[in-house]
């Protein structure tokens, strides 16, 4: 009986150690763990001395610590950053929708249920372990041994030989919460100050349509990582030659995006509002601030403004405050083909619908439109292929492509296959954009083609937030961007520095005729 009791005591101690030792991000199974947790013997001592008073708070704190670390691991896997309790809670719903689109509704619901059950199970185990230690026997001899062990743990902590990782982690999370609140206050103050509010001569040098085209997951990795550069650079080189022969001018560079791995709307908001919108809380604050977007200013300059958003399948109430006169969501684009898993329609159909619905000559006003291309969005299965533009029709021509190959649940078991699918998907999106520019070369719009964010680091094989920017159009207009630090052509030099995306709104407004108020 005594041996069985010691086993239970040891197991309970191990369970109380687990949340303290958990890693903070995905990595090698053991390399990221913290086996030396000096808080652990202190915790055991406190439970043994005053367990019935501390049992509940200890369980709550350890459970919160474990849940936050799990959220950190998930965020690092998807977005290459930690979880911010103050800013990221609204992401839960969006994350579940993306998961459903990647692995299917049944599998995503099962994973969500398993996660809840796992946390509930951990709570029950921690409650049992804390209860056992709060009732531990052994008298003062055992308590003395625990006290000695606790003091021994404090000695290297005081000398800096061992770090109290969990204590520092919790302290850091609290500090992050407080700092985020302070930053949001400063963010609101910046949002209230717009140098182009009331500016004159906005965009007066532009005599044609402007297309701001976001290419999903198109990042710097396409230029610097051999796995992708060996495919994407030749494609861009060929496009550069063809566009130049057609009389088009090009300049390109890199821009630092506020997000990685997902949350495209943060980049959309950052560019259009001229604010660094790095999380959902800032996004909501930017929308609510009343600060005029690039599209508000374009409308004031006489453009008709529009958003072509094939990924939007749910209500998008904030669109009414983004400055768009017209919003074309997935259902508005009249696609009658099959979806490509999460991707509602191929990019070639989206660009065809743009011409059919917004650039058909029925409105004499110049168009200033945001287009979000999503064929290079995860899960990258299957990947469409280019067809004759005249055969796009209602989209049903893509049905066979939409049913080709293995489903995401199979492909995503092999990370190398996922990377290959990503490589192909970005190639397709670039082909669509460049072919569209060539198709309209006789009377070209001014095109600003920009990646929304890098893919997640495990896919991109690149930790940087940089995305590509291409300005394509008539030479006279493209030349107005010369002071942006861009390089002629479609391929910037490897050493080219990225500038923050929140500067781009004011650069566009200033370069094409806008004069900020003094």
Annotation keywords:
518 residues; 19 helices
What is the secondary structure topology, with strand pairs?
Layout: H1 2-21, H2 39-79, H3 85-88, H4 91-103, H5 105-134, H6 139-159, H7 165-191, E1 210-215, H8 221-224, H9 226-245, E2 249-256, H10 264-273, H11 280-288, H12 294-300, E3 304-309, E4 326-329, H13 347-358, E5 367-373, H14 399-402, H15 408-411, H16 415-439, E6 446-451, H17 457-460, E7 466-473, H18 475-478, E8 487-488, E9 498-500, H19 504-511
Parallel strand pairs: 1-5, 1-6, 2-9, 3-4, 3-5
Antiparallel strand pairs: 2-7, 2-8, 6-7
In short:
52% of the residues lie in helices and 10% in strands. It is α/β, with parallel strands linked by helices and 518 residues long. Helix 1 (2-21) packs across helix 2 (39-79), helix 2 (39-79) packs antiparallel against helix 5 and helix 4 (91-103) crosses helix 5.
3D architecture notes:
The chain is α/β, with parallel strands linked by helices and 518 residues long. Helix content is 52%, strand content 10%. It contains 19 helices and 9 strands. Helix 2 packs across helix 6 (139-159), helix 4 (91-103) crosses helix 5 and helix 7 packs parallel to helix 11 (280-288). The relative contact order is 0.14.
